Amino acid sequence: MRMSRHYDVDAVRKEFPAVERMVYLDSGFQTPLARPVKAAIELFLREGFETAGPKSVWLDRVEQTRAKVARFLGVAADEIAFTKNTSESMNIAANALPLRAGDNVLMIHGDHPNNAYAFLHLQRKGVEVRFIPMTDIVDADSFAPFIDENTRAISMSHVTFHAGHRFDIESVGAMCARKKLYFVVDVMQSIGVVPVNAKAIGASFVGSGSHKGLLVPQGLGLLYWDKALKELEPAYLAAASLAEIPDDLIARPDKMAPSPTARRFELGNFNLPAVHALGASLDMIEQIGGQNIQNHCFDLGDHLIARLDELDIRLVGPRERKHRAPHIYVIALPPSDWLGHFEENDVRVSPERDGIRVSLGMFNTANDIDRLIDVIRRRGLGRPSAAA
C-alpha cells in the first residue's frame, strides 16, 4: 500500500533511535526520546555541571517556551501556566471554579479517572458530579438533557485514552458559552497530534501533560486559563502566584492579590530540564506541521483498519475519521492472551479495557502496521481470542 507522504517520515524517524530497535506503537503511553529533546536536556545538564546554572538564562527559556505553548494553542502567553502533569492541571481547574454545595458538574462515564477524581473530590463540599453515558459520538446534544438550573460546569477529554474516541468539544464549548457554564478540557491524548485551539474550543481551562504527543519525559504539565475569567482563583498560593511579589520576601497579608496572568496557578521553581525539552519538541512539531502529523496518523489508521478487516478482527471504538482520533486504536484481542506475544516479538503496545491499544506517532510507517499484522498472523487465527 502506498501511503500519502505529508512530510519526510524517514528523516523524522532518524530522530527517534528507539523506533529502529522495535515496532513502537505505544505513543499513547509515552513517546520515545527524540534527538532534539535529548539535546535540550543535555544542554541544561551541561550548564548546571559546568557553571552551576545560569539561572536568568534558564528562566528566559521558560518564558520562551511559554510563548511557544501559547502560540501552539492559539492563546496569549499570559494564559499559560506550567504544572506537574494533567492530573494537577485538572485539580487546579476543579478547585478554581466557584462551585458551592448543591451545584453539579457533568462528566462522561469511563473518561480518564484523574479528570473525574479532581471533581469527585469536591463532593466533600457538597458538589454533585453527574456522569453521562459514553457513546462513540459525544457532542453538545449528549450533555443537553442532563443540564439543569444547578449545572455549573462540564469537564471532559478531547480524545479518550482507552478507545480513541475524538469528541466534539467545539459544540460543547459553544453550548457552555450560551448557557454560561464553565468548560474544562483534558487534551493529554490529543495535543501534539490533533491540532488544539483553546480559543476555538471556548474552554475555561485546558489541561495536559507533555510526555505523549509533546515528546517530553514525564513530569511537566500545561494549563491554559481564559484570563477573562478573573473569578477563577488558585486554591493554593505562593509568592510566585502573586500580582506583587514582595522584594524583601516578607509575607504581607494585605497584599495577596493573585497574578493577573496564569502565573497565579504556579508555585514557582519549574521543572527546568523538561521545560527546555518542551521548547525543543515544539520547534520540531512546528517544523513538521501539526496538521501534517494528524493527516499522516489518519492515513496509517486507515491502513490499520483495512488490515484488521482482512483478518476479521474488530476495532474497539469509532471507525470514521470524523469521530476517531487519528492515532489511537484498540484491537479486540484480550490483553491477557496477547500482550506477552507482542512483547516476545518486539512490538510495543498497551493493554486497555477492551483490547490491545495501538497508538501512533509522527515516526510510524505503514511497515510498522504491517509488522504488527504479521505478528498477529504468526499466532494463528484459529484461536477464539483472535476474532471478535
From TrEMBL:
Keywords: Aminotransferase, Pyridoxal phosphate, Transferase. Residues 24-372 form the Aminotransferase class V domain. This is Aminotransferase class V-fold PLP-dependent enzyme. It comes from the Bacteria. One of its GO terms (molecular function) is transaminase activity. It comes from Bradyrhizobium zhanjiangense. The keyword Transferase applies. InterPro entries: Aminotrans_V_dom, PyrdxlP-dep_Trfase, PyrdxlP-dep_Trfase_major, PyrdxlP-dep_Trfase_small. The keyword rRNA processing does not apply. Pfam families: Aminotran_5. PANTHER family: BLR3095 PROTEIN, CYSTEINE DESULFURASE.
